[in-house]
Amino acid sequence: MIKENQRLLNRLHVLTDGAVLYLSLPVAFWIRFYLLPGGYISVPLPKYLALGTILTAVQLFVYAAFGLYQSFRKARLRRELERLWLAGALVLTLLLSFLFVQHYIDFSRLTLVIWFFLGAGILSCKRVVLRRGLRYFRRRGYNQKHILLIGGGEMARVYWDTVRADRELGYAVLGYVSNQPEPDMEGLKRLGGYETLCRVLDKRRPDEAVCAIAPEDYGQMAAIIAACEKTGTKLSIIPFYAKYMPSNPQFDELEGIPLLNFRRIPLDNWANAFCKRAMDIAGSLILILLSSPVMLACAIGVKLSSPGPILFRQKRIGRGKKPFSMYKFRSMRVNGAQDTAWSTSRDGRKTKFGAFMRKCSLDELPQFFNVLKGDMSLVGPRPEIPYYVEQFKEDVPLYMVKHQVRPGITGWAQVNGLRGDTSIKARVEHDVYYIEHWSLLFDIEILLTTVFRGKFVNSEALS
Fold this sequence. Notes:
Blueprint: H1 2-35, H2 45-65, H3 77-101, H4 109-139, E1 145-150, H5 154-165, E2 171-177, E3 190-192, H6 197-204, E4 208-211, H7 221-231, E5 235-237, E6 250-254, E7 257-261, H8 270-305, E8 311-317, E9 323-329, H9 352-360, H10 367-373, E10 377-379, H11 386-395, E11 408-410, H12 412-415, H13 424-436, H14 440-453
Parallel strand pairs: 1-2, 1-4, 2-3, 4-5, 10-11
Antiparallel strand pairs: 6-7, 8-9
Helix pairs in contact: 1-2, 1-4, 2-3, 3-4, 6-7, 8-9, 8-10
């Protein structure tokens, strides 16, 4: 039933997207020529409507190419909206380029830009409402995807606990198949051993089988795959080493042999790295110019507040585990614990002016020069001092993954409230998520969140 529901939902999804895109063009025409001043209609509305027919078809095709009409049960809303806006921007760019090259100068560029923002905005709202509606119905037992769980290892228990804890996902696990009963699979019925898998699949007819066998049962894998293929059942596999894998693993191929790359990240692509570095250079230059009067005032305040240097330089560990000197305005009296001790909100070493800078995050401003030099980025995991790197790398899983990218002034962990005396493990999880899911739009989202939520601060750092 879920397959029929999914097909119906996808058809309605495409039809409503097409209707919104097509109708957005005459609305954009009306806004441009009847609401905004200075409008001269050189191309009549029927020609825009003819163009809208072509644009709608092209846009829907690009949406499909970006994966926007696949099942989004497992996908995050932020990623779906990001793809939607990127696909729309791509079509708009190609359209404006085509009109320029073909000398179709009579079409209003502003009308097309309004069409883009209007259509993308309405479709974004539609997806938010659709997701909330589906989650509402799934909590009440509708639109369920029926799963047969194969295996009884650790990852099978993790999967069962996850889908049972979040009913909004809409997964209904019919039972599990394993050679031994699993006492930890509370509330889930064992349907038989591996030898009964074909019969169970034929009888239960699940929408999908999820295989999460333990390492000692790995010899059953060939028979499990064969049983699923024989019964026409879609199979997903959770490897027993899944807890060590990235969330979006990359595969290479060597003469037909698939190779799983554990730590390939988006910034390994030179084009992505170039775009991020270009944004860092442009952004840091602009921010240095805009904040220069404030930095001058801070420098004078630091000099008058206590004896010592204006800037505080501290060794931090950056990309590739290379040390660098991170700059901050000195907010404390000169002391000898700068390489091993965290500061706190009530630290007696802080000066009154230093406390003011800390509260307003003004002490972080010199790090724009670190970004310009290439030691840091505007967005990335916060850098740590060597003393704590040596300590955390032994105790916190995946801690050293953060050193694959430039550290940042702000980051995904910081905008989620993980600053100061918070869980190092949770910070690392957010840092790794950022590294694995990096995009320019993700960086912009973090920067905007930093500005509007006031999270531009690293309160555990020393000054």
